[in-house]
Structure formats: C-alpha cells, structure tokens
Amino acid sequence: MKNVNLLNLKGDVIKELKLNEEVFGITPNDKVLYDAIILTRASLRQGTHSTKNRSEVSGGGRKPWRQKGTGHARQGSIRAVQWVGGGRFGTPVPRDYSKKQNRKERRLALQSALAHKFNDNEVMVLEELVFNTPKTKEMVTLLNNLKIADKKVLLVVTDFTENVILASRNLANVALVSTDELNVLDLVNSDVVVFTNDALTKTEEAFK
After folding, report:
1. Contact call for residues 154 and 190 (beta carbons, < 8 A)
2. What's the sign of the alpha-carbon dihedral 35, 38, 44, 45?
3. How many Å apart are CA 101 and CA 66, to the nearest integer?
4. What is the DSSP string of 142-188?
5. Residue 92 DSSP label
6. Smallest Cα–Cα separation from 88: which of 53, 126, 112, 48?
7. Looking at the DSSP assignment, which residues form a beta bridge with residue 174?
8. Would residue 71 be called left, alpha or beta, if left means φ above 0 and alpha means ψ between -120 and 50 degrees?
C-alpha cells in the first residue's frame, strides 16, 4: 500500500492518504522515461541556427587572379571557405529537432517519473496552498515549515492564484505548474514534488 502524509501549511500531519497504485506503485520503465526526457529537451530547441555556404555569400563573382604565373595558389573565388568573409562549410543549418513518442509511452514515462519520486520519498501533499498576501516570505515560511527550503521544489496545483504566483516567482528553487502542465522534465529536475490535495486527486484521475 502506497501512503503519504497530508500536511497543512505549518507542516503538521493532518491524516494519511492512500495513493493510487497504478500511478505511484508501478515498476518504473527507465528506457521510456529517458526517451521522454530527450523528447522534451529536444522540443525546447528552436533549430533556427543558420550560416551561409559559399553559394549564399554575396560577392566573389570573378576569379581573383589568373590561374597561372602569379606565384599565388590557384583560386576560383574570394568567397571560398578558406577566405575571410567566405562561406562556411559543415556548420549548422536550420532543422527540426522534434521527436515522436506514442501516447502510451508518454503516459508510462510520466507514471515512471512519479513512481521514482515516491520511491525516493520525494512526494509531499498539502491540504491547500493559499496565501493571504503576495509576499515572497509567505512561500519561504512554507518551505521552512516543510523543511525543504534548501531543495529544488516543484509545486503542483489545480489553479493558479495571484498570491501564490507572486510569492513564488522570485525564488529560483521553486517552480509552479498546474496539473495540466505536469511533465517528465520538471519532475526529474526537482528534488521534491509538492502536490495540493486537489492536484493529487486530479493527477490520479488522469491515469484512470
């Protein structure tokens, strides 16, 4: 049985929650998880890098000097790759870095990441995440109460509230995502995943 404590904003245990075995209790598939990480990282690349080859560089229309008799090496254009201001060879050209992964594999990868987090005791659940003021100290106080102020924290919520957004955005070690945005890369990059109770329920329902 997979259980986790339900905490309040002070870090006190309210009760024990039973987690969905089909999400947090599976045997992680590291190969599929690795592929999903590569896919996600590749999707962040724009692929717009570009350089000009010798046919695209302007100028160099005529032969710089005659073929023989000058003492120089023979040259056909001042825009050849060995010339300053010439074209480039073997350098990046625009390309699409996106990869494909079927739906079942993406689903399994997310389940595997969640299972790894639970197995490593890196999953926490809050009763709710509500702040009275949009102050960074509100979030700092919460992290101190949960004893995770020195860790990279991923907060998973169902809806964004202005106070929570403003309280967390100045902290480099805190990332705030909704359940719809939960992804493998954010999970593996975090030290601790903190769900609100509603977000945990919604995440588990998504795998049914």
Report:
1. yes
2. negative
3. 57
4. HHHHTT-TTS-EEEEESS--HHHHHHHTT-TTEEEEEGGG--HHHHH
5. -
6. 53
7. 153
8. left
Distance (Å, rounded) from C-alpha 103 to C-alpha 109?
A: 10
Q: How confident is the model over 42-83, as pLDDT tens digits?
A: 999 999 999 999 888 998 888 999 999 999 999 999 999 999
Residue 1's pLDDT band, with cuts at 50, 70 and 90, is low
pLDDT above 90 coverage of the chain, percent: 81
- Contact (Cβ atoms closer than 8 angstroms) between residue 15 and residue 149: no
First to last CA, the chain: 18
Tens of pLDDT, residues 103-129: 999 999 999 999 999 999 999 999 999
